[in-house]
Amino acid sequence: MKKVKIYVTLRESILDPQGSAVQGSLAKMGYGEVEDLRIGKYLELTIKDTERDINTLVKEMCEKVLTNVVIEDYRFEVEEAN
What is the pTM of this model? Predict the structure, then answer.
């Protein structure tokens, strides 16, 4: 079995109002050192052993279901599951 960790973020060209709101809150709380903050998603999949190429499989899932490829970027890591 494989464990896949997927990190999803908004593309740099897309405004992140949630990130801006959290950054503003941090500044009000005395954490003005934070220059930029962007919020994303983290997904973790466990995939049973398969004949299919795991990288191709995960890429297909990300591009068809797990992300909005118009406004989001993603990257993933594959490792052996315990």
Answer: 0.89
